[in-house]
Design a protein that fits this description.
Elements: E1 3-12, E2 18-25, E3 28-34, E4 45-50, E5 55-59, E6 62-67, E7 70-74, E8 79-84, E9 90-94, E10 97-102, E11 107-112, E12 116-121, E13 127-131, E14 134-139, E15 142-147, E16 153-159, E17 163-168, E18 171-176, E19 179-182
Antiparallel strand pairs: 1-2, 2-3, 4-5, 5-6, 6-7, 8-9, 9-10, 10-11, 12-13, 13-14, 14-15, 16-17, 17-18, 18-19
Length: 196
């Protein structure tokens, strides 16, 4: 009898297609190449995420959902990241904004019009989003924007309950108590190593 696996294995092949391993038969994996011929919106993949329902593939020309051997495409924008929050909502950030998937309505709803590069969620469920020109905080459906000089926030890391370290092209920043401050390198202790 065929044993189904919930884990999905992805890799890019020389032809820029995606390999999907979804089941094992007698110790061997079944592999299916997924590419443009399968309606993948573009062969340059920027991010991949598997949630409880589908395989999501972000490309330079839109977000693709692969489910039950069928491909659907949402939008035509450059997808920068995919993220699932603690309540199991799927989010994506793109050059056209931040979007949240409303599964019961089978559609994405725009949350912000800014170019979005990354996101993180802290222990309290607050979502922090790295945008062009600052940090967006989404807390209990309320949004607050904290401006920061520069063009983008590249990565967000949670350290503890409310302390988030932001890696930006011009250095490291700490978001704490509703303010952002630059962290000079001597303040970083030896237990955390970061590169910018």
């Amino acid at each position: 009898k065929m044993k189904q696996f919930s884990a999905i294995l992805l890799s890019l092949y020389l032809s820029c297609s995606i390999a999907l391993a979804s089941s094992e038969i007698d110790g061997e994996y079944y592999v299916k190449n997924i590419g443009i011929v399968d309606n993948l919106s573009q062969s340059s993949v920027s991010c991949i995420l598997y949630d409880d329902y589908s395989l999501w593939i972000g490309t330079r020309y839109g977000l693709n959902e692969y489910r039950n051997h069928r491909m659907r495409t949402f939008g035509d924008n450059y997808i920068n990241f995919l993220f699932v929050d603690k309540e199991k909502f799927l989010w994506y950030g793109s050059n056209q904004g931040l979007f949240k998937y409303l599964r019961d309505q089978d559609r994405f709803e725009m949350q912000s019009e800014q170019t979005v590069f990354c996101a993180s969620q802290d222990e309290d469920g607050t979502i922090l989003v790295g945008c062009s020109g600052g940090l967006l905080r989404i807390q209990n459906e309320e949004q607050t924007f904290f401006p920061l000089d520069g063009s983008m926030i590249g990565s967000i890391y949670a350290f503890g309950d409310k302390h988030l370290l932001i890696d930006k092209g011009s250095g490291l920043f700490l978001f704490e108590n509703d303010s952002i401050r630059h962290i000079p390198h001597p303040e970083i202790d030896g237990s955390v190593v970061l590169a910018t």
